[in-house]
Amino acid sequence: MKAIYIVLSFFFSILLMTFSVSAEINDAEDTSRAVLGARPIGLGGAYTAVSNDILGIFNNPAGLAGVSDLQFTSMSGKFLGEYNYLNAGVAAPTDYGNFGFGYVGSGISITLPQGDVELPDGRIVPSSGEAVTYDQNNQVFLFSWGSDLALPIKKLSFGTTLKIFSFRLAGPGISNGNAMGSEVDLGFKYRPAGFFSAGLLLIDALPTNLGGKITWANGTVEKFPAIAKIGTSFNIIGKRGIKKVGKHEVSINLDDEFYVTKQNLPNLFHAGIEWSPNELIDIRGGLDQTLSGENNLTVATGNLTAGIGINFNNYRFDYAFHQYSVASNDTHYFSISYGVGKEPFSDDMQPFYIENSRTYYDEEVNLVGSINNNKIKRVKIGEIEKEVDKNGAFFYKVPLKFGRNVFAIKGYDGRNRVVAEQNVNIVRLRSFMDVPPDHWARKDIEDLATLGIMDGFYDDTFRPENKMKRDDLLIDFVRVKDLSTQEVVDFPFIDVSKDALIAPFLGAGYKAGLVKGYPDNTFRPLNPATRTEAVVFAARSNMLSLSQADERPYADITARHWAINEINSAKQKKMLTFANIDFFPQKEVSRAELVSIVAKLDFVQEEIKQMYAEN
Q1: Could you tell me whether strands 26-27 and 221-223 are parallel, antiparallel, or unpaired per DSSP bridges?
Q2: What is the DSSP letter of 52?
Q3: Neighbours of 207 (CB within 10 A)
Q4: CATH of 352-428, one of 3.30.70.1520, 3.90.170.10, 2.70.130.10, 2.60.40.10
Q5: Which residues have CB under 8 Å from 456's CB, separation 6+?
Q6: Direct distance between the N- and C-terminal alpha carbons of the chain, in angstroms, rounded to an integer
Q7: Residue 13's pLDDT is what?
Q8: Alpha-carbon gap, residue 522 to 535, rounded angstroms
Q9: Which stretches of the chain score pLDDT less than 50?
């Protein structure tokens, strides 16, 4: 926690010093803010919580923490139809965090006819008619760093950008038209969930007394007004979104921007939506508020934005359109970036494609897979690092125990950071020599034997056609329900002594309501167990809601049958797949039939589901 306090104390102390800047110094324009990149512009400038690649240099530097390989970007064109602009950047991961370098250049050259000149004595010298040229050139060099913070708060990133300014004004009558200066941006990004992220950005945070200013050649000092932005991003649809709809991805992004030291200026709202119908295309729209003058007041003006992105391999081409309050100022932006292309994912949206079946009978198998995410350079299965061939394939011989075998697969990028994780569950099933693959109850037998609910015999057989007695039926259901047989429980059955081997099971079953016996207070443990009795035990075990049978469930079950409601409910739960037209209620139940009934109990179904679950 101490590290958190240090980081936050530093941030807020900078903010406090920013508030204390002298109001007597004139403001300067931060020209690096005009060219954020075509993608952020298409999103209406709502990028504080989205920033996750090289564009963090020009937006929120905390986003540089998402850079895993070398990245480049460049954008050029005419801003507002007049200013030539160019930005370019490069970013790369290192062992000491991710570093980026950016350049923003803008300029305008205007040629005007020379006007008349008034001399000190009041005489007017007519213009010679010759044209004169005025030039303005601004350059900003950006040095950025961003990284995930090693704090108890997971998925928190921090970044900073040092900006070096060089301004030049040239033309007749202009002297000392050169200026140099510096400023700093600070940013945080927090990703508590895959569908949500938040960002905090303080632009031009360096106080004047610490170097946050522009100094002209004649000694004039100007400062950059500090701006704060708070942003959120919601992935509504997508592989990390709230809902998955094919390969579609939809995000909604919101930013609130305000001047820290100018409380009289209105807040600016930025909103953007991005829809990716597939891995190739991104479609964007947004609302970007900017300041404008109206009736001697400064107001927030809403401007619509739109854009499109095309992803191909590691390249992304972005176009954005920005509307302005003056139609002639509407501007088109174009940029191209490398190393930021979307990652191809398999249809199940997993970073690894596993070729294996999910069920085996062997003691060990080769886990064979391939990479679906090209950021992954190395793979670990558990603590064992596995070699990945040139096609992204890997394999690993793994031992299997009966039941669930979950293998944690991690993918590492070039900086040895975990960029993908996936759990793979392989189930090893019990098999029996007398249960062939085409046996009608094979799956139920293997599932229950693997879970230890109903086991086989010492000679590796299950004996599915063996008929059961009432004591066998009782013991199996007591074990299915996991009832304790340690407590001594009195029971009313006169044909079973208290020291009989079955007595603990009979006591547990009687206490749990599984067993009621016959009217003469006997249990008759060695009597054959019938299908009807098996169904009644199951109904009591599963606490079935016994619905009144509107019609006979089977041809041989009369309307007055003592267990018609239990049999009807069991049929509705698909417990009796072995019965067709007739149920044969007095037929001795076989072990296979009992397994089929038990496997459909609600709590047993849940155990089976958990055994096969991937996570």
Answers
A1: parallel
A2: -
A3: 21
A4: 2.60.40.10
A5: 430, 432, 449, 462, 463
A6: 31
A7: 42
A8: 20
A9: 1-23, 119, 121, 343-349
